[in-house]
Design a protein that fits this description.
By secondary structure, the protein is α+β, with helices and mostly antiparallel strands. Helix content is about 20%, strand content about 40%. Strand 2 (about 15) and strand 3 (about 20-30) form a beta hairpin.
Amino acid sequence: MNLEHKFCALGTEVTVTDGTIISGYASLFGKSDQGGDTVQKGAYATSLAKGRSIKMLWQHDPAQPIGVWDEVREDTRGLWVKGRLLTDVAKGREAASLIGAGAIDGLSIGYRTVKACKNDKGGRLLSELELWEVSLVTFPMLPDARVGAKGGDPEAATLRDLAAAFVDASSLMARD
């Protein structure tokens, strides 16, 4: 199976309650990512209707589950998730600490493309995706969707720009 990943920052609507409850958007409709792909409204509907448990992973590593997504749903804006970090798991405790400090602020989806077509910008319009997991990640694919409290830090902005450059270079290398 060919599993793909798309990155999105937690965004300004994300909430972290009691250091363990996370909610926000894992994917935004109509936003072109740095790879040129755009997720279309309704892309997750068929997958979510199957009722499969969507895993919460650390950096897309299937050997490192760190929590449970209690709610995963589409709305008019994108794919909204709400879940709990498991602090009984060492990596879950680490994730809670890193999120609390603002060191981690990204979400990324792991999925299989079911239906897509080329868009006019050289990327793809993703119309049906089979969602497998939503991970907490260091470098999100949509650098403009950030946790508001940490977004003004010039050092963080430099790191985001550097991460974007790595993603761009990786995309170019993958196309060759």
